[in-house]
Amino acid sequence: MAQQPAALLAEDEAVLRDELRSHLATMWPELRIVGEASNGLEALRLLERVTPDVFFLDIEMPGMTGLEVARQVAGRCHVVFVTAYNAHAVAAFEQGAIDYVLKPYTIERLALAVGRLRQRLGTNPASLDHLLRELARVVPARNYLRWINASKGQDVSLITVDEVLYFQSDTKYTRVVTAEGEALIRRPLKELQEELDPACFWPIHRSTIVNANAIAGVTRDFRGRVLVKLKARDEKLVVSETHTHLFKIM
After folding, report:
1. How far apart are CA 174 and CA 145, in angstroms?
2. What is the pLDDT of residues 70-112, one digit of tens each?
3. Phi/psi at 67 (nearest 5 deg)?
4. What is the CATH number of domain 6-138?
5. Which of 98, 124, 145, 171 is the most buried (most CB within 10 A)?
6. Span 27-50, pLDDT tens digits
7. 212 near 172, Cβ under 8 Å?
């Protein structure tokens, strides 16, 4: 008996994610949903843990966009982009072999995508390179956080994010650590993460986000944990097990 195809769903709106799952269960009952993500970072972590046949990927998600996640797919599975955009974005899809579904979902369009996916299973996934270049031109660019106001004692300092080595949760505050010292902001780390450029700021622990440009290297402690070494500070930052994949190439 052939193995049932597996799928990942990445959609930041819970209601639409539930709707997509429900429609797929009706249209493609043998399809197994092996993971769901509500933002781009979760989607990327899922992709490291499971190997899906199909990936339904929302273009606009917090933390990391679907386009940024798609760059990591690299022919590993068939992708269906979920998008609220039409006109120019749809024109880009029509040129290639990558399918799309517009939000809000219509039964007819989703059924068409499912039919095409069924036909493509067992074939090599189409290259995303051309489509991603086209979509990058027509999808509005994300405006990431560039500077923050942080408290140092009684003073408030303006710190550009490029100066930040890492952010770390500290009870009700978040520590902002630079080469020159530390400051505090009254914002939760999770909220801050959604405004940072994921290409530069990597979550390495549930309490720590590091600036990739500030990393000098990695090492392991006597317990086998991965530790990040910084270029401009002596302390080492613990990497949780779920984030060690970020350093496999180092």
Report:
1. 15
2. 888 878 899 999 887 665 567 667 666 688 888 888 889 899 9
3. -65, -40
4. 3.40.50.2300
5. 98
6. 999 999 999 998 887 888 888 888
7. no
